Amino acid sequence: MNLKGRVALITGASSGIGWQTALAFAEKGARLAVTARSADKLHELADLIRKKGGECFVAPADVTDADSVRQAAELVGNHYARIDILVNNAGFGVFKPVLEMDMQTVEEMMNVNYFGMVRFIQAVVPIMIRQNFGHVVNVASLAGFMAAPTHGAYAATKFAVIGLSEALREEVRPQGILVSTVNPGPIDTPFFERADLNHIPPIARRFMLKPDKVAQSIVRAIEQEIPQVVIPGGMVPVIKIKALMPNLFARGTGKLYRRKP
Ligand SMILES: NC(=O)c1ccc[n+]([C@@H]2O[C@H](COP(=O)([O-])OP(=O)(O)OC[C@H]3O[C@@H](n4cnc5c(N)ncnc54)[C@H](OP(=O)(O)O)[C@@H]3O)[C@@H](O)[C@H]2O)c1
Hints:
With about 260 residues, the protein is an alpha/beta fold. It has one domain: 3-Layer(aba) Sandwich (Rossmann fold). The protein contains ten helices and seven strands.
């Protein structure tokens, strides 16, 4: 898909990966709709895009609130009369051993990272079906392929996203809709204001990427119709090794993550 003139709705656009993706899409000539809870930050982003000659509609929403999600999708659909791209990106992480994780945080993470995504898919994909055209990009994570110690509750939300995406991809393919997952490793964003960076091993911290790299990968996933993107690409063989030797791999990551920071 050529992004020029396409209507793209991005969740979690008030910060980090979502913010950079909105800017990258605007560069390509897409017409933007941005959502998150922080309306002030969304307006700041929209002003920035408009100053550069782009188009940006602000539709604040809390992904944990079904009515708020439905309203946002409706506002965007009415404003542009179509939605071509949905980037499901809103999310957060808390890293703690499973036995120390309070249930409220476990449920909140699943509610935002997974149920929030389902809510936006159910609100937007019917619009795409009416158009017989669309692309859904779900931002999962490397944690959706491998769950290191202290990442259990967060990884569960991302395993869920990958499973959901796999099924949805084949359900909506006949209606001309594509589904991709984009799976980043550690990225330097405000995500780590809540997630404890000490639970990422030093080697991974050293190779931490900036969010604009993920934004470029999302653009590529859409332009080149790629179902699954891993960032950095060097992690693809690691995922394959894990699939071939899961027990050995788990023990290796266990050792790596138990090492003192
Ligand atoms: N950074 C990483 O290392 C990394 C790695 C792999 C995957 N990811 C994934 O990438 C996505 C974006 O993360 P990021 O790194 O860009 O983090 P970020 O800078 O903290 O951005 C998170 C975004 O999610 C939004 N959000 C959180 N809760 C929400 C809610 N209840 N309703 C609506 N929006 C909500 C936030 O907006 P408001 O607070 O304004 O609502 C914000 O825009 C997440 O799904 C994350 O799991 C991140």
